[in-house]
Amino acid sequence: MDLLERGIFGFVHRVPGWVVGLVALLLYGVGLILPPILNWSLARLVIANIAGTAWAAVLAIGWLWVQIEARDRRHLMEWTSDLRQLSAEEFEWLVGELFRRETWEVRETGRQDGPDDNIDLELIGKNGRTIVQCKRWDSREVGVDEVREFAGTLMREGLHGSDGIFVTLSKFNRPALAEAKRIGLNLIDRYDLYERVKKVRRTEPCPICTAPMVFGHSRYGWWFHCEVAGCRGKKNLSDEVGRAVEILTLAA
Ligand SMILES: [Zn+2]
User: Domain containing 131: what range?
Assistant: First the structure.
């Protein structure tokens, strides 16, 4: 069943919605049309009908699930101002969405349960494959052991140090920084990550100084506010719930 599940999800992940719909319709149609042509008994006809419908439903639900996941991922990018509130899985999503908005083609590898859990995301670019490891730690610093372990993974994948990106919500300690520099590994710590997320967030220009405002949520509702020192520009979106939802749910 596990393999079947993965097959279905793999399918609905990779093809556009209309193809899924078409296949679902075909499956339904086959269950409906084929039995009378083949002159099947009523019992077999009913079974074929149920099977066709069930398969169509499975595909439709799978597709819906993928859509919901994609929507949640976009949510994360917009409202997350404190990344420490994210679970490890959500953190991985966020990092994936970040790279996607930075125009990479991103593949969630789903290899967490596999023998090598150092590959969380794969980025496909013009110059080949880049592998991303995400560590959601926020207090413990990433050390040289973790960097070497990741370097080992890259080597096994036939890649160079520069083909790897290590992302953490924490920081890298000195030996880790030195080792990463030696092998050319790319590091993204908490500060870099916030900077990059900020850049790909959608926003509006400040009504006073036209700098891009920051989107956030307070107990008064949804707000854009200006972060330029001394500027008090802001915009309340609470009366524009539709607009706030749009910002939250639409892709950049
Ligand atoms: Zn301003």
Answer: 83-196
Q: Which of 122-131, 159-168, 243-252 has the highest mean pLDDT?
A: 159-168
Number of domains in the chain: 3
First-to-last alpha carbon distance for the chain, in angstroms, is: 36
| Centroid of ligand 1 to alpha carbon of 211 (angstroms) | 6
Domain final residue, candidates 20, 49, 79: 79
Q: pLDDT digits over 95-139, tens only?
A: 888 898 888 899 887 655 555 566 789 999 877 899 999 988 888
232 and 217 in a single domain? The answer is yes
Q: How far is the CA of 243 from the centre of ligand 1 (A)?
A: 21
Q: Are residues 17 and 47 in the same domain?
A: yes
Per residue in 22-57, pLDDT tens?
887 887 777 777 777 777 777 877 887 888 888 888
Q: How far apart are CA 224 and CA 206, in angstroms?
A: 8
Q: Which of 47, 62, 79 is the last residue of a domain?
A: 79
127, 143 Cβ separation under 8 angstroms? no
87 and 75 in a common domain: no
Ligand 1 centre distance from Cα of residue 222 (Å): 17
Predicted TM-score (pTM) of the model is 0.59
- Mean pLDDT for 61-74 is 76
Centre of ligand 1 from the C-alpha of residue 226, in Å: 5
